[in-house]
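4.2 Preliminary Data

To establish feasibility before requesting continued support, the project team ran the inverse folding procedure on a target of 366 residues. The structure was first converted into the token representation described in Section 3, and no sequence information of any kind was made available to the design step. The complete token record follows.
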């Protein structure tokens, strides 16, 4: 049976009738040493805009880059004054995936760095993409796809999304490979995405069961070392072990997003005996000063007399929920539901329970 609290701005995730602690593939729990992407960046120009490019007076670097590009193409623009409004300076970013080979294509992101108002319809001119070592690993070029738009008239304008940022699917071609002799490695370190002693021990046990005793060794809660046998193919070994399934262990945690009112409770959340009361108390204070004036022909002066009215409304009688023993997540949700409180009020209740020592879980506030 599904027990949850729903509202327009928040959802309390809880038991959905599935088994808690489902088995997860090893490839979803760890990352392999050296098998990762590399960030690339480049500076380029987007041309062909419909009058929405940089104003060269405010973005002089765009004019310099355009002049340099034209000179490389054999067009002499020295001592020439040109003010095109269909060019925008952009930063181009991409991620070079692991084991990418020359000729492979990767997606790129294009973002304006000048005062261009819209990149719709623009084309990125050939842009080298460099890594942290300063070497060029890919070259990007192509039409920019924009998800947002901008429309304006004489007295109003509207902007939807971000028209100054776009993407180019498969817009960069790999020109240089990263040397990585994975087949020659005697072993690799498996880094847990969420370090945990129990999960690391279970990974070690599962690997030794599949490959034989001594194949894996837990180094710390975030690392398990996997040793390859002499003569084995490391790639095939990883293909065989990454589909191993096991149950990861997670700490008890309650995540609260105070801005949206979203509450997420982990399956390991436990409560000690506690009584919870929820009620409403409102106090209204109104100031209505009165001016007292003397008679028309009398002596005296005008005096302002204070008048204060205070009203107290305790609302309907509050409900009290009593938990007599340590409970699980579904019991906690049932107790909160019995109070008829809103998710915003649940957040305050969870904070108070944590302060009282009755909530045995890490409370993460965002």
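Position-by-position output of the design step:
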């Amino acid at each position: 049976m599904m027990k949850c609290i729903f509202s327009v701005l928040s959802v309390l995730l809880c038991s959905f009738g599935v088994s808690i602690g489902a088995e997860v593939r090893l490839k979803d729990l760890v990352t392999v040493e050296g098998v990762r992407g590399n960030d690339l960046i480049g500076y380029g120009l987007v041309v062909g805009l419909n009058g929405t490019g940089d104003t060269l007076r405010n973005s002089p670097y765009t004019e310099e880059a355009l002049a340099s590009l034209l000179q490389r193409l054999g067009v002499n623009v020295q001592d020439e004054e040109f003010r095109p409004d269909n060019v925008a300076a952009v930063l181009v970013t991409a991620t070079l995936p692991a084991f990418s080979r020359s000729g492979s294509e990767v997606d790129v992101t294009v973002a304006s760095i000048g005062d261009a108002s819209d990149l719709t319809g623009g084309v990125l001119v050939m842009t080298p993409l460099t890594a942290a070592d300063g070497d060029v690993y890919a070259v990007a070029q192509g039409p920019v796809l924009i998800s947002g738009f901008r429309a304006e008239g004489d007295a109003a304008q509207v902007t939807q999304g971000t028209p100054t940022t776009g993407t180019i699917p498969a817009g960069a071609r790999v020109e240089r490979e990263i040397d990585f002799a994975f087949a020659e490695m005697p072993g690799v370190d498996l880094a847990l995405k969420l370090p945990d002693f129990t999960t690391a021990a279970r990974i070690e046990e599962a690997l030794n069961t599949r490959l034989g005793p001594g194949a894996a060794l837990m180094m710390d809660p975030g690392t398990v070392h996997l040793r390859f046998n002499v003569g084995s193919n490391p790639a095939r070994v990883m293909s065989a072990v990454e589909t191993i399934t096991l149950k990861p262990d997670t700490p008890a945690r309650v995540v609260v997003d105070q801005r949206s009112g979203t509450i997420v409770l982990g399956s390991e959340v436990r409560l000690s005996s506690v009584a919870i009361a929820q009620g409403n108390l409102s106090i209204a204070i109104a100031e209505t000063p009165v001016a007292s004036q003397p008679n028309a022909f009398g002596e005296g002066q005008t005096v302002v007399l204070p008048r204060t009215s205070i009203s107290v409304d305790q609302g309907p009688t509050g409900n009290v929920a009593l938990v007599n023993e340590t409970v699980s997540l579904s019991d906690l949700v049932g107790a909160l539901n019995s109070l008829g409180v809103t998710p915003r009020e649940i957040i305050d209740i969870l904070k108070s329970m944590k302060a009282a020592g009755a909530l045995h879980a890490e409370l993460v506030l965002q």
